[in-house]
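Possible regression after last week's pipeline update?

I re-ran a chain I had predicted before the update to compare outputs. Posting the input and the new output here so someone can diff against the archived version. Not blocking, just want to make sure nothing changed silently.
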Amino acid sequence: MLVLQPSAILAFAGLATFVHYNDEKRMIPLEAEQTTVPKRCNRNRPAIGGPFKLYDTENNVVTESKLRGNWTLLYFGYTSSPDVGPAEVQKMADVVKLLESKHDIKIKPLFVTIDPQRDSPAQLKAYLSEFDPRIVGLTGPVDAIRQIAQEYRIFFKKVGEVGRDYIVESSHNMYLLDPCLETVRCFGAEYKASDLAEAITTEVQKASNSATN
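New output (post-update):
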């Protein structure tokens, strides 16, 4: 049985306190062309997360509407992270493989940089390909990154800055988004890949059972 660690409980509890923040702005309209979205998504509601416009490693525009209809595992990091960051990206890659091989579940892994000044699309692509080329890297203007980080309650700040030499302190949570773009779970860095895969499987199965009832 998966035991939820205290830090993860506190992290998700913190997220819940912001659910009513700026509700009107954070309503997510149903995209008319998204015919594969489950019926339970066919209404507006406040959510953790919100509209964004970023760019992938091929310089293609990516908005929140492109996530609809898919389960998504979302992580905010940066390619120069010296320790926790690479471990979390490797965990994400391992989880994707476990879900597909062991549970026959496909999930979209998404990496949003919090260091857009150094993480160009080319830099992101080279970095993520070392872990798993299926991980989608997103970057964009500083203001756009700040916006999406605020929407997902991500803390980050530069420390020890000398020119372009600095590190970025940040939270290290992963977010599980369902096909309606709702944040279903928040996972702290203490989760192992196997535990994370089991927890995601449980949420996907619960959603599937709910849809058929």
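Follow-up from reviewer: compared with the archived run. Residues 25 and 50 are 8 Å apart (CA to CA). Marking as no regression found.
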